[in-house]
Structures are given as structure tokens and as C-alpha cells.
Design goal:
Blueprint lengths: L34 H21 L1 E8 L1 H12 L1 H9 L2 E8 L5 H5 L6 H8 L41 H12 L2 H18 L13 H9 L5 H6 L1 H15 L1 H22 L2 H8 L16 H14 L7 H19 L6 H6 L1
Parallel strand pairs: 1-2
Helix pairs in contact: 1-2, 5-10, 6-7, 6-10, 7-10, 8-10, 11-13, 12-14
Protein name: SCFD2 protein
InterPro entries: Sec1-like
Organism: Orthonyx spaldingii
């Protein structure tokens, strides 16, 4: 979008976590990093320099976190960047922040944002880090209940050639979910009116079923489909996200995170973990509303990220051991472990 540029080629670039006896967050130079990380840092510095050259920027860098300091220092001493800063006319402040300093933000569910939900729940577009597959079967005469139907190519979120879709995506990113869904309806109604499709505008709350019924109007009209294909892909992504079981779980996560914040404020870590323990269930004991193994890993990252200093002791060790045992059992009982669980095991 106009305000956000992602660099998917560097999606795996994460600061090394200090292990037991490993390097702490003290000042480290690029030479002290593992070879693979060193190469990734140099790639990032080169790409940022290209970006700043295109924008004609003379930057002043600030860094928060150990790896960010290394990257800022590398950029400052990079020869092409030095030459660029001598001649560039626009000034900018650049702030680097280590991703591991905001894990609570990355795993939390506090955002009331449609774009975030779409990117979280729909399957990734193969070969892409920042786009998703939108099931397009609804726009065809093909009737199938197979969710993985691969006869119809998937749609996606990137619609650079469709001004209406680009504007709608901006509202998905910048508005609250309720307003963004209303924008989706408004764009659909306008598109249908332009194509003289028999649309009945309704007021009040927008439901996924209502959006689906509007999309159906385009189905047998090839010209209308072609003219508004980008917009229809975004609205279909909205419908599929709102109907997705993970979206209803989103509110459960949010409620549980708020409860955890209260509990952490009032009691110690062991009692928080003991609260979590009975909720860890194996595959054959889980209902659709229960948390999966991945959900628990996300919750644990959240808890340990927001709790701050943890008082060590026998009580904590016991509570942690119980949670570990329950999680290991749940992971081992998974009939079809996800790629993430396979990677972990």
C-alpha cells in the first residue's frame, strides 16, 4: 500500500535468540554473526540502499535492538550508501527495530483489522510470503464441496491494475473491520450498478451471506466478471475470512489474552500456567472450539512476552514441566501434524 512496503525475500531474517550460554544482547559486530545471517544482513543493506537511491534519500539511522544496531552500522559504512548521502536531496529518519522485541504484537489478537485477519486465516499463495489464495469456485458454474479444488486457479490480494480493488485494500488496512466490510459492500453495489445488474441495496449490518448473494449476480455475466475481477477477488477473500472457523476463534484468543493480562497483574507465572494446563487437550478430546497445539504455542509466546521479569523457583519449574508434558503428549497424538509441528519435532 502507499504507506507499507514489505520485503518478502527477507521474511526469514530474525535476530538470533540468546540461548543458555549463548551471546547476550551485548554489542556485536557483523563479523560475530553466523555466516547465513551475515549474508542476509548484507543483502538487506544493499536492498535498502537501492530503495533509498530510488527515493533520493539521505538517511539518519536509529536502532532498537542488537541486530538493528548491526544493520544500521553496516548501512552507515556501506560505500555506495556513503556516496548516495553526499548527493541526495531528501532527508529521512530511519528506525530499525528487532522483530523479537515485539513478539507480543506479532502473536496477539488485539487488531480490529480486516487485512490482518485475511492474511492470518486464508492459505498462503504458493511461493509467496505476503499474499493468500482466494477460492474462486463461487464465480463459476462448477459445483463442488471440495475446499482444495484445484481446477480453478486461485485469486489473490494484489490487484495493481484495478483502481477500485486498490482503494478497497487500503480501507481493509486502515479502517476498523466493520467499516471495511461496509466499504466492500459499497464497492460491490457500485460495480453492479455500472453493469446494470439487478442489485437490491440493503442497509444495516453486512453479512458474508449478503456479500455472497451480490457476488452471484456477476457469475453469468462474463463482461462484468472481466471488468471487476480484482474487486471480486477481494470481496471473496472477505467472505471466506468471515466464514472461516479461525475467525470465530480470534475473539476467543482476544478474550483469553485480556484475562491473562489481568491474571499476570494479580498473580505469579505458575498460577497463570496452571490455568492454561487443563485447556491443553489431545486431538481426540478436542472440539472445534478448543485450542490446537499451534494455538498454545502462540499463547505461550504471548504470555512470556508480556510478563516481563519472571521469578524463578521450584513452583515455576513444576508448572512449566506440567505444561511441557501436556504439550508434548498433544503434539505426539496429532494424526496429521502441520508443517510447523513437523519442523518443531
Amino acid at each position: 500500500s502507499a504507506e507499507l512496503c514489505l520485503l518478502p525475500a527477507l521474511a526469514a531474517l530474525l535476530p538470533p535468540l540468546p540461548g543458555p550460554g549463548g551471546p547476550g544482547p551485548a554489542e556485536v559486530g557483523v563479523g560475530a554473526l553466523p555466516a547465513e545471517l551475515r549474508a542476509a544482513v548484507r543483502t538487506l543493506v544493499g536492498e535498502l540502499d537501492c530503495l533509498f537511491t530510488a527515493l533520493g534519500l539521505r538517511e539518519e539511522s536509529f536502532a532498537v535492538g542488537a541486530l538493528s544496531r548491526v544493520i544500521a552500522a553496516e548501512l552507515a559504512s556501506y560505500t555506495p550508501a556513503r556516496n548516495r548521502r553526499r548527493t541526495a536531496t531528501n532527508k529521512a529518519s530511519v528506525i530499525f527495530v528487532d522483530r523479537t522485541l515485539d513478539l507480543a504484537g506479532a502473536v496477539g489478537h488485539h487488531g480490529d483489522n480486516l487485512a490482518e485477519k485475511i492474511l492470518s486465516v486464508l492459505p498462503k499463495l504458493p511461493g509467496h510470503k505476503t499474499d493468500v489464495m482466494v477460492n474462486m469456485v463461487e464465480l463459476t458454474a462448477l459445483q463442488t464441496t471440495d475446499g482444495t479444488c484445484s481446477i480453478i486457479a486461485p485469486g489473490c490480494l494484489a490487484q495493481p491494475n484495478d483502481p477500485a480493488a486498490k482503494a478497497l485494500w487500503e480501507s481493509f488496512m486502515n479502517l476498523k473491520q466493520k467499516e471495511a466490510v461496509m466499504e466492500a459492500r459499497r464497492h460491490l453495489v457500485e460495480a453492479a450498478s455500472r453493469e446494470n445488474l439487478p442489485i437490491k441495496m440493503s442497509m444495516g449490518r453486512v453479512t458474508p451471506e449478503q456479500l455472497s448473494s451480490y457476488i452471484q449476480l456477476f457469475r453469468n455475466n462474463l463482461k462484468a466478471l472481466e471488468n471487476h475481477c480484482g474487486l471480486l477477488q477481494l470481496v471473496l477473500a472477505t467472505v471466506q475470512t468471515l466464514k472461516h472457523p479461525q475467525t470465530s476463534k480470534w475473539d476467543n484468543f482476544l478474550a483469553f489474552e485480556r484475562l491473562l493480562l489481568q491474571t499476570i497483574g494479580e498473580s505469579e507465572m505458575p498460577s497463570v500456567l496452571n490455568q492454561l494446563l487443563p485447556m491443553i487437550k489431545s486431538y481426540n478430546k478436542r472440539t472445534k472450539d478448543d485450542y490446537t497445539c499451534e494455538d498454545f504455542l502462540v499463547l505461550l509466546i504471548y504470555i512470556y512476552s508480556v510478563v516481563g521479569e519472571i521469578k524463578c523457583g521450584k513452583e515455576l519449574d513444576t508448572a512449566e514441566e506440567e505444561v511441557k508434558k501436556a504439550l508434548v503428549k498433544a503434539i505426539c497424538d496429532e494424526p496429521e501434524p502441520s508443517p510447523l509441528l513437523l519442523k518443531i519435532t
